[in-house]
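Category: protein sequence paired with discrete backbone structure
Discipline: computational structural biology
Format: plain text, a pair of labelled lines
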Amino acid sequence: MSKKKTDKTKNHVEDNSVKDKVEDAIDQAIEDVEENAENNQEDGEFSETDKLKEEVQKEKDKFLRLFAEFENYKRRTSKERLELFKTANQEVMSAMLPVLDDFDRALNEIQKTEDKSLLKGVELIHTKFSETLRNKGLEPMNVEKGDDFDADLHEAITQIPAPSEELKGKIVDVVERGYKLGERIIRYPKVVTGK
């Protein structure tokens, strides 16, 4: 079992034991008040014990609500912390995207040459660079010619007459690739649409 799980389990057990101790103390106080009420059957004292019971019950309710609120707060902050860790490197990834684009362009141009050793070296570096970014959560968005245009997922930079009838209202060309970091889109793909 990892240390984090052990610590989490200890904290949970400690939270429950504290909660149980407080509830036991409150229940004991209620029992004491009830015993005093039975011993003192006079009308004035009986109404006073009822008031005390009511106050103890209110305090118990207040405590339970506060405890539940604190548990919700802990869950919410841990969820926010996880989100922060997932997207903490968004700024660095966004800065690396133009380098990746230039690498893709260079690779396309080098493929046109006859120098196979240069091509192999650049492909090796490109693959390593792409895999490193992918391992850090960067995923390319798969957008191709003929896909339906969606304004929520694509950025249309221009609209041209469709070369064929089936490309009307669809993507004609992808100018710049889009990327996601986790579930968040950090760069929308730039596309040309047909009209």
